[in-house]
Amino acid sequence: SPSPSPSPSVCDPAVDFFGCESPCPAGNWIKSNSNTEGEYEFEQEATSPAQCYEWAAEAGCDIANVDGYWVSGTTTECWCQFGVFEPQDDVRWVSCQIKIPPPLPPSLPSPLPPPPWAPGIEQLERRVATSTDDAEEN
Question: What is the band of 20 on the pLDDT scale with cuts at 50, 70, 90?
Fold first, then answer.
């Protein structure tokens, strides 16, 4: 099943990094470069953050990420990132959340402790040491 997308919202010029000049269809462009693990850069530079968003959405990315130095009439690097970004004030990169990835499956329960009749680690170590000594004597 497709993962849920952020609810569409109107761009807020007071929040959007580019003042809504190149809207993020799913919300606002926010300063962030928090999801660099597994990211990749598109081969061409995008003519706008909106174009980067389109490419990243088509490629199945969770986040479109562009250079915050972009100004209208120039191009920008365009990165595909995964996960849910965290806002960061001290970076020049800007992100738009395309979709929220599905949650990870719940972790498996911890294994049960060994039954009381199972050999303990000391017994196993002793057994391995004994068999190694026997092999060396032969």
Answer: confident
